Amino acid sequence: MDEQLCYAYAVVRSSDPPERTALADVRGVAGAPVTLVRSGAVAAVVSAVPREEFSEAALKVGLEDIRWLEATARAHHLVIETLAAHTTVLPMRLATVYLDEDRVREMLRERETTFTTLLDRLADHVEWGVKVYAEVPPASPPDPVAAGRPADEANPGRAYLRSRRHQRQEREDAWRLAEEAVRRTEEQARGLAVERTRHRPQEGGLAQAPGENVSNDAYLVPRRLSEEFRSRMLHAADGLHGIRVEVTGPWAPYSFTAPLAPDAQEEARRR
Amino acid sequence: MGIEPTAPGAPVRDADTCAVGRQVALIDLLDRLLAGGVVLAGDLVLSIADVDLVRINLRAVIESITDSGVGSWEGT
């Protein structure tokens, strides 16, 4: 029998735990049942994982393996989604691993107040992802011959320069529209969303949506305003040529788990 | 260690058929799981508080998943 570690997914209120039946259908990242570890007003949602797969050394290897990473991320997400359907959930970062349940209990005891404050703030709120994409023309110079007009045939150099200018202008226009779209999404979010987190714009091999991702924001929105928020975002870039707004969610509040700075807390209270 | 099974023998539900298991884009999920979530130093301190680990090694695939931050945006 392999030695087991304790993988923590999230913190919930122990007074408002998901029913056992809700978690009964779910398996954790390593296929084990998902259970609660309680301490005072809070409880951690955990499952057993084999040490051979989740030790520090093994995690380093696993995190470099996109298939392992995807499988683990999706399993983690499934647990979070299941919880979020029943109660307020405070997600933990991927691969938060403890030696045993006692250590989890200790961690809960030390941070009980922080966790209850965060859970209060997240109650009845959901996260929406809002990404703005622009069709930006490529920066590479066009083929000078193809770009030249018949009238310029006598002076291909001038035609080339003109087409470069034209192209630069097109890129500038695309970025200007993109900025305008981002500004509109911010404006439309006011009065509906209570917080925003900016993720880095997506690029690289996993970013498969067409166009260039110019903003990748997450908003925390009261659940009752969700549909209005979504619909406002989907229409925020109406009329802006070549701009697309992609909305994802509702998500559990993954992007809003940092304790608020004191001045932001003050502001939130005044709201 | 003493993790008790919630319901021994309960069926394992396939993620694809589960209502809450809707497929989300991996990159959107990783934005949240690697840059969001409560960061606690677990007992194995690696955690992913140190996102550099992933960023460096998966650069070709992921490239840009990094820190996010609460911006200066005012929600009021």
From TrEMBL, chain A:
Location, primary (coarse class): other
Sorted UniProt keywords: Gas vesicle
Cell location: Gas vesicle
Membrane-spanning parts: none
UniProt-listed InterPro entries: GvpL/GvpF (IPR009430)
Region annotation Disordered: where it falls in the sequence: 138-166
Family recorded in the similarity comment: Belongs to the gas vesicle GvpF/GvpL family.
Protein's UniProt name: GvpL/GvpF family gas vesicle protein
Organism for this UniProt entry: Streptantibioticus rubrisoli
TrEMBL record, chain B:
Family: Belongs to the gas vesicle GvpA family.
Name of the molecule in the record: Gas vesicle protein
Principal subcellular localization: other
Natural source organism: Streptantibioticus rubrisoli
InterPro entries: Gas-vesicle_GvpA-like, GvpA
Superkingdom: Bacteria
Keywords attached to this entry: Gas vesicle
Pfam family, one: Gas_vesicle
Subcellular location field: Gas vesicle
